Amino acid sequence: MPIFDYKCQECGEVSEIFVNQADNKSIICPICGSEKMERLISASYLLQTETRAPGRTCCGRTERCETPPCSINGTCRKS
Predict the structure, then answer these.
(1) For 23-46, how does the pLDDT look when each residue is reduced to its tens digit (9 = 90+)?
(2) d(C-alpha 30, C-alpha 69), whole Å
(3) What pTM does this model have?
(4) With helix as H, strand as E and coil as C, how does 5-72 read?
(5) CA–CA separation, 18 vs 27, rounded Å?
(6) Are 20 and 1 in contact (CB under 8 A)?
(7) pLDDT at 61
(8) Cα 21 to Cα 3, 18, 27, 28, 42, distances in angstroms
(9) Which residues pair with 7 in a beta bridge?
């Protein structure tokens, strides 16, 4: 089952939720119980779909930035 990030439109909580695509149940906020959930595009999805030159970060540098997010998970902010 894939994991998706959802943001609750009622309380603002962001949650990772396992989704069985064969099951048509509504996604419910685990904090407030609201069904007003918006699926977010996760960082891992963006990293998988971006194309960049081998050995370079997404902004084109050859080395990682010293400030987050590069120093945390290997990705960098685009300018």
Answers:
(1) 778 899 999 999 999 998 766 555
(2) 27
(3) 0.50
(4) EEEECCCCCEEEEECCCCCCCCCCCCCCCCCCEEEECCHHHHHHHCCCCCCCCCCCCCCCCCCCCHHH
(5) 10
(6) yes
(7) 61
(8) 11, 9, 11, 15, 17
(9) 14, 38
- Pick from 8, 2, 67: nearest CA to 40: 8
Structure tokens at 18: 């396992």
Q: Which domains, and CATH codes, for the chain?
A: 1-40 (2.20.28), 52-79 (no CATH)
Q: Which residues contact 26 (CB under 8 A, 6 or more apart)?
A: 35, 37
- Residue bearing the bigger pLDDT, 15 or 72: 15
| Cβ pair 8, 15 in contact under 8 A | yes
